[in-house]
Design a protein that fits this description.
By secondary structure, this protein is α+β, with helices and mostly antiparallel strands. It has two helices and six strands, in the order H-E-E-E-E-E-E-H.
């Protein structure tokens, strides 16, 4: 077995583990969270703002729960088009409304699909 094929299997396993962890968090926390719309108050980017490739935006968000305004304790990833003052959907812990979660079914499905593609490429030596 070549190192390329081993590398593809390793990537497939890592992505599958990522999807599995997200699935477990989704199952455990889904009924203990709620969703609302928040306003972005602060944005941080790991790379400089001019670097559009391999960059992301992470935001502190304010949102209202039961007529009380909360500011998130942790940052959540937002689209690259988001700006301070933009609105975004956030999922918060019902018992600790200032704590946000970023799990989603889309992330789980995409992870499983990417893992499947890497397994297929590795099994059939398509590279």
């Amino acid at each position: 077995m070549s190192t390329d094929i081993i590398f593809l299997y390793i990537i497939a396993v890592i992505v599958l583990l990522f999807a599995a962890v997200n699935c477990i968090v989704y199952i455990l926390k889904h009924n203990k969270t709620a969703q609302t719309t928040g306003t972005i108050v602060s944005i941080k980017m790991p790379n400089s703002e001019t670097a559009r490739v391999r960059n992301s935006k992470w935001a502190i968000v304010t949102y209202m729960v039961s007529n009380k305004v909360y500011t998130s304790r942790n940052r959540v990833q937002v689209p690259m088009t988001a700006q301070v003052g933009s609105y975004t959907l956030v999922r918060y812990d019902v018992k600790q409304p200032d704590k946000l979660y970023s799990f989603s079914m889309t992330r789980i499905v995409v992870g499983v699909l990417i893992s499947a593609v890497f397994f297929i490429v590795a099994v059939f030596n398509l590279i």
